Structures
1.
Amino acid sequence: MNNKIKRILPQLLTVLFVVLIFGFFTLNAQVNMDNRGIDFGFGFLTQEASFDMQFTLLDYDGQDSYLWAYVVALLNTLLVSFLGIIFCSVLGVIIGVARLSNNFLIKNSAAWYVEFFRNIPLLLQIFFWYYAALRALPLPENAEPWFGVTYMTIKGYFIPAMIWENLNIFVYCLLASLISIIFIRNYAKKLQEKEGKQLPLLYISLAILLIVPGLSFLAGGVTLNFEIPVLKQLSATSYTYDGGVGLPPELIALVLALSLYTSTFVAECVRAGIQGISKGQKEAAASVGLTKNQILKLVIMPQALRIIIPPTTNQYLNLTKNSSLAAAIAYPDLVLVFAGTAMMQTGKAIEIVGITMLTYLSISLFIAALMNWYNKRIEIKEK
Amino acid sequence: MKTISFSQLRTASKLNNLYIGSSLLSIAILDVFINSFFNVNLTSGLPNKISLFLPLVLGFIGFGILRMEFTGSRFFDNLNKNINTNNFNALLTLFIIFVIIKATPPALSWMILDANISGDTKEACTGTGACWTYIKVWLRRFMYGMYPNELHWRINTAFLLVIALGFVGYFFKENLKKYLALYYVIIYPIIAFLIIYYLISGGSFGLVWVETGAWGGLSLTFIVSFFCLIFCFPLGMVLALGRRSDLPAIRYISVGYIEFWRGVPLITVLFMSSVMFPMFLPEDFFMDKLVRVIIAITLFEAAYCAEVIRGGLQALPRGQYDAAKSLGMGYWKMHIFVILPQALKLVIPGIANTFLALVKDTPLIFVVGLAELAGMLALAKTNPKWLGFAMEGYIFASIIFWIICYAMSKYSYNLETKYKTER
């Protein structure tokens, strides 16, 4: 009896405490909202947003609804995160491997890179790139072309736009080739388990990936043209580039800062993963007679990835959450557009901050669930 | 039969390799050095592209020859072992050396040689380099925000007092040692809060009241991170214990709390504290923005702290729990005297990382309008008298933050090695 009370009482008290806090807050919120004449509801989502966004992936103008503004802003956030993740992975792997190099200079340069970029607050790095470094770029009319057709200017990076015809056929071909590659990989695995034969998988995959979509250009009526940005005069002193795609400086500064900052953490994950594999594994594989490439592919990587991937995913998640710093340099991401402009206009603080937080929360939980599934899959199954 | 290989120079003496290799290498480095420091191109007679790549090719061949045999010189053997093990390494080494040599003169001249620090106005900056005058003039603002100049001694004294009190624990006598945790977790935060409240805010003891809106600069960074740091640790500990508890209600509430805060970005939490939280408070109850922000960051970081501490709790072997229980210890006794001391020792690096992240996160309070260092920089940058010195400002702030964070990470590394106990 005594034991039961000991178990139930603390739980009851905690629950009571939480309920009381929530009750207190809700009550206050109701009173406050009544006093200010604000009502709670999500009806505003269908109203006209009537503000503009500098940079959008989908068509958007002021006449669209708040809901559409939300979708467009969310896509902007995801674009920054996606680009950041790609760049930080590439950089992180290079730096992580470089930290294990036996070359004194390389090892130390990589170590200093990590120490340098991870000890400066991300916000300062974003400000540095946006307000200091990118402001030193030339004006559009003075810009020298990079690679002949792209222009890096103070107004952003202008690259040629791709103009597709029959894009859907090309995408189908790409999908078909990817699916066939998966089938061939499975077949090769079976073949190896059965007969011990190995197919040159890399070359076969590359060939399929190049030939099938390539055929769609020849036979499927797919064409690809590039629209090259051209200098255009707006007024007497103001120039810009017309045609092509203009990546705004906010996006560039954000992606640069996010990927440089996060790459240091990814580099540490990669280093830990590779160091986590004992030398004996490599020696054992070599003594069985595997070649250097096979050791890397069949013995080292599968084990290293098991250590590397979970913390790295965490870093990707951090990058996605950190991309909300975009609000500080006015890149139209979810926080700026929704928790900033939309909230100012509608005054619906609770609903809008709630939606914003829920969005990030669901992205995090989704990735966490994926991660758990992956961890279960690659777990070492001990007998 | 002897085969002659032309791809390798097999000369009679090892010393020949040494001489040829090192002279080629030094010619290459000298060329780049003179080119970048004195702006003289030694190979200007050659076509442009050849002149550009000549040092790289020469240095590469030099490294290649040096690598062929043991040179007999300790310096060159070390070189071979460390930075010249194969072609790829040699190339990378050369690349890094050249980049360093190339980057030094512009950086040096911008930072020091062509820079200005004299004078009090923008006009004093005549050189092509950095304008440190800007930093000099704005230094007090960067450090203390809009806090009145003649009252800065109050901030300094408060900080010195708080730091001094932090070290008091070192001088505790043996019989007082058991109160150490009590002191740091409960008494110290209260005293520190009172000092900062009465000294920096003022309003009593004949001190002039300074509202928190005037606080700013690096001192605000310190105040915010200090309070968040001392408050988030105990809260994190409670949450970690809650998550490991076998009482389902407490466990689920802790899990929900931790996963919620870990899933949202800090910036939305700050937005919540500044625009949404006042709605949740009673009408006539006013809470200062700074206090709200400190509470928000504390709640946020406590979730991360909790996860780190949970890692330590999980790493302890079951035997520790069983042994404590078999001695008849209750839940609290077991945790305070057996589990937590060991678990916390294990997670020192993790906790230090969380604190480091906290310090690096404090500039974010700029977004809700508190002018700490990043905020003051933004203010100074848009001042019409001082336009165009964003670069100097951000480099200055980066250096300061870098020193703080680097020192913290090194200190945590020292702690880690100091408290490492063998199992």
Note: The two ends of chain B are 63 Å apart (CA to CA).
2.
Amino acid sequence: MGAAHNYEKVRTMANAMEIYKLLPKTNCKECGKSTCMAFAVSLLSRELTVDDCPPLKEDKLKANYGKLSDLITPAQGASESGMIVHEDKCFGCGNCVVACPVNVADDPHGAGIGRAPTSDKVILRVKDGIVRTSNVQECRRFGKDKILCNGCIVTCPTEAIEFV
Amino acid sequence: MKRQSMVILLNENYHVCTGCALLCDDIEVITDGKKITEVKTACRKGVSRMKGCNEPMSPTVDGQQVDIDVAISAAANILKNSKSPLIFGLGNSTDGAQKKAIELAKQVGAVLDDTSSFCQGPTLEAIFNDRIKSCTLDDVRNKADVIVYWGADPSNSHPRHLSKFSYFPRGQERQRGWEEDRTMITIDIRKSHTAKISGDKFYQIPLQMDAEFIDALIDALSGKVPKVSFEFDPKRILELANILKKAKFGTIFVGLGLVYSLADMEPVVRLMDKLNEVSNFHLIPMVGHYNMRGFNQNLFNETGYLNRVKFEKGNSTDVQHGAEFSIVESLNNKTVDAALIIGTDPLSSLPRSVAEHLLDIPVITIDPCETFTSRKAKVTIPSALSGVECGGSAVRMDGEEVKFEPIIDVKDQTIRPSDEEILARIMEAL
Amino acid sequence: MGFGQFLAAPEHKVTIVTYRDIFQSAVMEEGRFSEEYLKLSAVIKMDAADIKKLDVKVGDTVLVKNKDNNGKVIVRVESSGYDSHSGIAYMPNSPWSNALVDADTGGSGVPRYKNIEAMVSSAKGESITGIDDF
């Protein structure tokens, strides 16, 4: 594919709870946040980095430091937008696929008109009856100029999509 | 981020999903030659259907596994010895199979009925007889600015209805997206998954009050003050009437919630007449089984009736029609003495007290999978899963014909015969 | 049955409306005889206050019988999650709901699938009506 992205880097998303579990859970406040959970959320939104937590660099948490660094990839990681799909709630109606403004812009003659996506750049597509994400770095909630787009949330009948 | 090199993967290999009467025609699959292993773009129900069931049916007679030819001749025997057989189902069969079943019904003098008999029959009858204006789902996608779901919850019954046709897609005259270009209204007794998406355009009415609400709406559309006997802000009815009045291209999707709440279609006909006096409205029934409308169309073309008929044995022009030839009344009144059930499961879908008569008469089932009915049947004949193991054509909920090819390569395999082939072989054996 | 027992198991009159559930429909395509299909079908969804009146908790089993007493099933009770709808209950279309639908259609041929009069009472500890019980 001639696209500029390295699709290999797109990975499963982390959520705040998953991150929290790897933190010291001491609420030491050294990062400037009042709790480790708050720090987890800041990591997810890329406001802070793993290195902002000094206890993580101590020997006993070194393994967790490594895992977190993998989880919180600096760029292009799908976790960047904080999007979570609750697969047990999703039944593949495709409302989000068709309503997503990025999908519409990238695939006006496929997803944009309600048909199967024809572009490999779409963020959302349905496979085996459940919506799957890719290219999440293209999500409007991502990056420097992010906006609080909620196209996929308000169109979901079962609240299967969530942003943390 | 530049998006210069858009890769369009034009796909020549789209398949049709026969999971419901939307007949989605943009499905990609991966197969291992025998079974479908991955399905793209179909909803959860469509995926389950295309991948096939875990309980395939075997050819049996009296519970004993037999060669399929033995089962077919046993079926022919039952029909031959029956004075008044019932043929029921066919909503999950191709047009070809349906036409064969009509021929068979004539040959043996059968009562012929399908699930529309206790489903969307009245709505389709009104459309076939031009009493209600309808349109295609493509018209809806391209033009509709006001969409009403009445007593329907497509999120659960036809999951892609909103995304593929009605609310979310861009269309020729609806280029700006759902938020600006379309209004979606839900009228129902409960806040269904679909109603949630309607937001503040959800109108919740009490059980069985649809006819009254329709008349109040007609009053509002006529400039009168709407009145209902239940608690409901008349301002909201006026607001709804106003949205409908301003529609450039409106469509009402009728679900079973509305159909079951009315004694007949007259209130709906009245509403549609009024709407088309002040606005431009169409109606499409939310047909369930993928080719139920096909059956109704095929029988209507042949007899002028869409369901509930009885043919006189050997006399192809003598056909009676009426509620007494519905499956429910035929079983209630015990007027049938054998049953051929094709692609449906009355022991599951009919009231238990009605279906019980099926336990007293010889039953033949033709189906790809085991069903409650097949487990009590005298003869079972396994058939190809249509849309996957056999091709054909079907009629979408809006009346459009959709053709499809088998997905699994049926050569070199001991594949189950299609419903059409089985029916033809039964007719030969007769 | 003594008066005490009567008090212990209050009956509640409901009108049952059947509906379609996509997860149940999907599981049905996979097979009608699975545990999963039973789990998603043998369910009655009630108003939270009505559940309280029955002296049962969400997840408990309840006995549902129709007005002519010719159909009864034991199913799991769940809260509908809708705004108050006392007296109305919901069941997905299935052999369990169909055990309760009246055969009498007044000659119309259309059973009252979405308007079933029934009584619900606690059946705590009893097992759900199985597929083979029909």
Note: The domain at 9-76 of chain A is CATH 1.10.15.40 (3-methyladenine DNA Glycosylase II; Chain A, domain 3).
3.
Amino acid sequence: MTQLPASTAKKLGLVIDLDTCVGCHACVISCKGWNTENYGAPLSDQDAYGANPSGTFLNRVHSYEVQPEAGTAQLIHFPKSCLHCEDAPCVTVCPTGASYKRVEDGIVLVNEKDCIGCGLCAWACPYGARELDAKEGVMKKCTLCVDRIYNENLPEEDRVPACVRTCPAGARHFGDLGDAESEVSQLVAARGGFDLMPEQGTKPVNKYLPPRPKDVVPEFDVLAPFLDPVATDGKGFAHWLDKALSALPGGAK
Amino acid sequence: MHPAKSVIIFTTFSGLGFGLLFWLGIGAITPTGLSAFIWFTIAYLAAVGGLLASTFHLGRPERAIKAFSQWQTSWLSREGICAVATLLAMAVYGAGLVFFDRVLAPLGWIGALGAVATVFTTSMIYAQLKTVPRWRHWTTPALFLTLSVGGGALLGGQVTEALVLLALAAILQVYTWVTGDTRLAQSGTDMATATGLGHIGTIRAFEPPHTGTNYLMREFIHVVGRKHAQRLRVIAAVLAFVLPVVCLLLPFSHIWGALALVSHIAGVLVLRWLFFAQAEHVVGLYYGKR
């Protein structure tokens, strides 16, 4: 059914810490591995060992350079996967009912047997969370590892999405964002977690934690600003060259 | 957006076919016998041919029948239902004209309404997308409808109506281009809202997630063809509007009529190519592109 549920019992999702992510792409690889071997059609690659490799991924890590008004630029690694939106535009546009949002936990899934591969859901998603698999011809997206999180055949510590389990930096957190008391909700509240593209009105469940403010480099010596580090009593050829060049029209003094 | 051949052919020819069905339905042309058979064959070839072309871009065309189920929320599903209902109604109406010389007027009006609804639902597939600010505007359905009914009038030999509608479409098209060019910037979505990092400083895409390309970039970031967009706009406007109008204003001859039609179709194909190639999807912002 492509009608969105009015509310869901839980809002399972991810909290991604942009302060902690080191950009190692381990979550990308573990996601590709788990989701190729388990739920649904495998995530295919085209020309994997050739000149133009391309493939289906459910999770990708961008890197951005952010230049503040003063100080040095920051490099911020930015993992991006399905945000399991409350008002998921990808679900309502689906003509076949293959896309749906689960009432019990809010996970957005694709029933691949009903998908005709029209691609309209990927058009409707502002985040690029859906990719049409070139080999299977069906839409692939993050399942929040629905085949892990409820899987009683796995040890309890493994019952989280593969990306969360594998993250060596602890930058990814999984839980119920509908429960204000949950660890992830408290983390979002404490760190000022935010939505991506809030103006699109999708109400994403996944939240991002902003990078913490950078430390200000302390002044090592209070007298340092008063010291003149440039030697003015130079000697020899370099001194003569400096004076000669400065004397030219437009020369630096 | 990637300008897929199948979708350009689909929107151009099914628009034209349903436009002709509109004029046949309202009784502007009421041919009978063999002449009616030829008229309806032309309309169905364009409408059904376009619809069939649209299935070529599906990953799983063999399951296309399932697309009729979600009319409550999906414009694509509504379009499928409108198209099939219109084609069925007009088939009965056409059979009345071809075999019994009977004008089943109420059925014709239903078919005409259905033809307009089909083109409207097609346009809403694009106009509904918040992710493509250029399309999310009333001009998208207005232009689709005017071009479809205007093209149908041209194909159906309704000279006066065609002149008025093509002139109107030209004005709408120019307005769409002028206002559409700034709509992404005005939408409020930019790299700062996409990443939520705008409070720190100026954001630059430093490194993409992959060394090659991917589905998202192929589908949503079309840069190559935009280079010639302004020249193509002039070519499209001349072919789709100016030349057909000049042909129609000349003393009537079937040669001028045919030239007007061929020129108009070529022009609309270029217009549709631009419609997709120039549309910017917000996901491009994550790649520092548009």
Note: Chain B has one domain: 5-287.
4.
Amino acid sequence: MVEIPILEVKNVSKRFVLQGQSIDALRDANLTVRKGEFICLIGASGCGKSTLLRIVAGFEQPTSGEALMWGKPVLGPAPDRGMVFQDYGLFPWLTVRQNIGFGPASRGRPKAEVRETVDRFVEMVGLTRFADVWPHQLSGGMKQRVAIARVLANDAEMVLMDEPFGALDAMTRERLQDELLEIWQRTGLTVLFVTHSIEEAIFLSNRVVVMEPGPGRIASTHEVELPRPRDVASPEFNAVRRVLSARLHSHHAPKAA
Amino acid sequence: MSQAVAEPVPAARRVPPFRRLLDSAGTVGLALIVPLLLLLFWHLAVAGGMTQLIPSPYDVAEYMVDFAWGGIWDDAFSGTLLIHLVASATRVYGGFALAALCAVPLGILIGRVPLIRDLLDPFLQLMRPIPVTAWLPLSMILFGLGPRSAFFLVFLGAFYPILLNTIFGVRSVETRLFEAASMLGCRGNAQFFKVVLPASLPSIFTGLRLGLGLAWFVIVVGEMTGVPQGLGAVIMDARTLSRTELVICGMIVIGIAGFISDRIVLALMNRLLRWSPQHHG
């Protein structure tokens, strides 16, 4: 292999022990992500999509197998893989500006540089007017914008998103999807995005990874080659949706081996 | 991504000053109804001869003036309010400060270090149910009759609420915030000042507030130990001398002093915890 992928997940399994019972949250997952890709992980609950994301983030260690970032094993959380949580995970005692500057400031960047970085990303996510308010004063969509800006300001090469728009209303969700795509196209980020919405997955990604529960595993991978911007109402979009929908629902959980 | 259309919840509603004054006057008025009714009942009860042992509100008010400034009765207690208040306040704040100084770091350690938790937590939990009043005889033996004993009891009274709330605050920091900090590059001990401390500040403040309240609560017991000055001492002396109006004066002064010091902590708390939806305003 000539080109090293930004992320390689190799035979990753994760087993939890819950009340004396061992559960295969994830079995033998393999996934290769090239720089700049937008990949969605989709599947019913218990299919291991969040577990896979948390292993890539370094929050969990795999029971076997490994995740490689630029060919090096992931040993723990680090700024190159920024995580956006569904419940935002903002620091409530810091203002929007301070939240966005948290990463660069913790890593000892000079004050002037931090200020400049923060200004740039506050503007990128359209929160200039709200730069000095606390998170509890923001709407859900605005909080999620802060969370996105926070990982971008910290030079994340890869953004891991765990159902980031799941708690938002439909209108806000659509707007944030558009904004996320715009940022992705502009910055060349690599995105790994967990969702349970087929439409969201097709709308956003280059590649949809379908996962299944019992044991959690990757069932199939689908390239989405629709031109952008994508129209969720177009026949082509619906054709893809039909294929994925059939794929998601046709597989009943087989008995655990 | 150029403009945000959604508007945030405004930090403070714009209310005209006149309206705000009216509102706060209304709030104060509402709060005064019950005390005034009680005062009226007290007056009527005394005037109607229901009791001979309790002085009328007027007698108490008159004595309060004498207690504060003198010039009416000119007895041993006239014009001594400030001396007693300062004596008590010194013990209250001193004992409270010492309690805070011990309990906050100890609570953080117990909350964060399993070894220290296993070492100290069972012992402290065992000591906790013992009421401060039960410590009185022992404290007199240990610290002698006098201010040191009072100081110790106040310390003890304020210690537990501060300790327990600090432990609670430190232990209930959301896991999510640690995850967020570590993926942003803030790890290990740096998380203590950047995450643990700010996140547990609301609980620590709750503990401080309860602790200060209890310090005023305990001061009367603390000053039963034979100190010459202090509001508790005044109440105990007045009881011995059957000076009920003086007992009531002492009670009122403690109530007001405790109330004011609570308001100060509350104001400080609201100022420092403006970020918290439970505290701002």
Note: Chain A touches chain B through 46 residues (CB under 8 Å).
